[in-house]
């Protein structure tokens, strides 16, 4: 890994190698994804004891499951015997325990080693020492967050603090009752781009007029390219003729009961570094998680959350989902068009931050600080 050609100007982006160098990506895995709180799953995916989900967090595979006492547990998905990957599926359910597919060591839902073939004939093996390795876990907004650090940072400061920074308080997000909403639709996007291109794209609105015709119809102030969403507590207002946050601006679904007058007919976007984006509108919440897989590949999982009776009653959410699904595809296509340019000599010293993108410059400074490399500016 070489971190060279750092552009000296205040208006430059990170240089191309930040998006293409596997060594820099490895550093990000260690100092960002394995060090911070990382959102892995919707708690409702773990509806009953034995339901599980696996996902990549930094360099590790993590297993989260619902245990017998109803709590969510998280472990490194690695067998303590000889290191085989314990759980091979992305999600599923086990009856009582996880059994390693290699030599059949068996772990309870609390991670304890409960059985192993012929273990009684190996008295020097202390079973209590060879349980799965625990990972810190929290639940908030109906999502499961894990942290691989030995001493995790304060969840209140790091995760809730990002919401407060954007909305002014946590009450404003609690009004949406996200925990009690149901997943009406989930779409998983496999994006051939570095995770930072996705986060930078999400943080800016400069591209909205060019690539988001449907979104700018609903939110006319996005058409001027300024990231109005970054003023604390300020949501973007729906256009006058717009009835709801739908692909054609037609009527939405039932409004979330906690959403007050000041949050009605407004759209809020929140970035929780390093990998969560939340969009709030009066009748639903769109919740994105990024799973950075490689320097040039990021899986994005996006949930559209509605009131339980909307989903259970089979109401038509199609026009509602379609708006942001199109926005996502437009955004991710743009990121994929950008990724090859990161290796070009034309981008060796990076690109340009226009005046409305100073917060992207702040993101770069934040990242360089975490990676402990010299700042660009
Ligand atoms: Fe898992 Fe041997 S590696 S039981
Ligand atoms: Fe966009």
TrEMBL record:
Domain of life: Bacteria
CDD domains per record: RHO_alpha_C_GbcA-like, Rieske_RO_Alpha_N
Cofactor(s) this protein cannot do without: Fe cation
Taxonomic lineage from the root: Bacteria, Bacillati, Actinomycetota, Actinomycetes, Kitasatosporales
Keywords associated with the record: 2Fe-2S, Dioxygenase, Iron, Iron-sulfur, Metal-binding, Oxidoreductase
Cell division as UniProt keyword: no
Domain Rieske: start-end pairs: 37-146
Molecular-function annotations in GO: dioxygenase activity
Entries under Gene3D superfamilies matching the protein: Naphthalene 1,2-dioxygenase Alpha Subunit, Chain A, domain 1, Rieske [2Fe-2S] iron-sulphur domain
Protein name, per record: Aromatic ring-hydroxylating dioxygenase subunit alpha
């Amino acid at each position: 890994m070489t971190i060279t050609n750092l552009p000296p100007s205040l208006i430059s982006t990170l240089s191309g190698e930040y998006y293409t160098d596997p060594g820099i990506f490895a550093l990000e895995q260690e100092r960002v994804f394995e060090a911070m709180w990382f959102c892995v799953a919707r708690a409702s995916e773990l509806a009953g004891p034995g339901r599980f989900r696996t996902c990549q967090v930094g360099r590790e595979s993590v297993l989260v499951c619902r245990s017998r006492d109803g709590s969510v547990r998280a472990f490194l998905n690695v067998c303590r015997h000889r290191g085989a990957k314990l759980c091979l599926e992305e999600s599923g359910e086990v009856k009582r325990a996880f059994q390693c597919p290699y030599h059949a060591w068996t772990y309870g839902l609390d991670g304890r080693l409960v059985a192993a073939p012929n273990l009684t004939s190996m008295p020097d093996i202390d079973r209590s020492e060879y349980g799965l390795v625990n990972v810190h876990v929290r639940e908030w907004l109906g999502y499961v967050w894990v942290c691989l650090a030995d001493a995790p940072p304060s969840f209140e400061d790091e995760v809730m603090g990002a919401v407060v920074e954007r909305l002014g308080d946590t009450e404003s997000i609690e009004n949406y009752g996200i925990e009690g909403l149901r997943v009406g639709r989930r779409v998983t996007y496999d994006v051939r781009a570095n995770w930072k291109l996705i986060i930078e794209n999400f943080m800016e609105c400069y591209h909205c007029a060019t690539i988001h015709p449907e979104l700018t119809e609903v939110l006319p102030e996005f058409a001027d390219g300024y990231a109005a969403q970054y003023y604390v507590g300020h949501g973007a207002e729906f256009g006058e003729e717009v009835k709801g946050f739908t692909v054609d601006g037609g009527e939405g679904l039932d409004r979330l009961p906690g959403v007050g007058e000041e949050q009605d007919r407004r759209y809020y976007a929140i970035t929780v570094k390093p990998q969560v984006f939340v969009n709030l509108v009066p009748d639903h919440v769109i919740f994105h998680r990024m799973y950075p897989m490689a320097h040039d590949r990021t899986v994005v999982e996006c949930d559209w959350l509605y009131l339980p009776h909307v989903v259970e009653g089979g109401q038509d959410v199609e026009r509602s989902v379609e708006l942001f699904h199109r926005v996502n595809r437009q955004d991710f296509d743009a990121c994929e068009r950008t990724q090859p340019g990161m290796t070009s000599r034309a981008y060796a010293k990076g690109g340009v931050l226009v005046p409305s993108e100073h917060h992207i410059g702040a993101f770069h400074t934040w990242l360089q600080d975490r990676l402990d490399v010299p700042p660009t500016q």
